[in-house]
Amino acid sequence: MTDPGVLTADEQLQQQQQQQGSAVVTDPYTSLKQNYEGLVLFLTTVQNVVDGWAAAGERIQFAFSWSDQLATTVLLVVLLLLAVGLWVLGLQVLVTIGLLWVFR
Fold first, then answer.
1. Neighbour-count burial of 54, counting CB atoms closer than 10 A to its CB (0-12 exposed, 13-18 middle, 19+ buried)
2. Residue 29 pLDDT exceeds 90
3. Which of 14, 25, 64, 65 has the fewest beta carbons under 10 Å from its own?
4. 36 three-state secondary structure
5. DSSP letter assigned to residue 7
């Protein structure tokens, strides 16, 4: 019924497992070493991410601590200008919405 030269999916899977089985290293510590290296890579990545967060937090703390008075002054002026700009923009938007509501 089936062509003898064509392998079924199960036969292909068995053939692949046999080919991989011959290439498997018999050292019992190989998989343990691979797991260890994967764990070290993961923990190094986590450490780098947390280090980045800590550095950003230290910069923010430094900016508000008056350790560098010029940097803190500049930061406060920028934040004040941002607040005024948002307040003015917000007021214009509210007036526009109110006028559109009245003239509907």
1. exposed
2. no
3. 25
4. helix
5. P
